[in-house]
Amino acid sequence: MAAVPLSEAKAELFKTLGHPTRIRVLELLQDGARPVHELLAEIGIEASNLSQQLGVLRRAGLVRSSRDGATVLYTLATPDVADLLLHARGILASLWAEQEGLLVSLRAASESR
After folding, report:
1. For the residues 103-107, what does the mean pLDDT come to?
2. Same domain, yes or no: 84 and 60
């Protein structure tokens, strides 16, 4: 099996994260294992859509599933996923703060005309 360049592996990871439902699932799993029915209730999408998104996350290695009787539980594969989401939130907060500062400056310039 040929080694995949790190940049390609990162691009695949970010493609996997490029769907709002997948991000929401990962956010919900930060607090621990959750059964599918809880994820469905929280996210509010059709079961088939959630199943599809969970499959993408599972194949990417970001989540793991296990059975407890008839219940399927999902967990984050590594705490690093939660860290990545936290860092993404910090990046967005910084970007939005900069944009808010620009907006305030533009409004002030418009009012001084």
Report:
1. 79
2. no
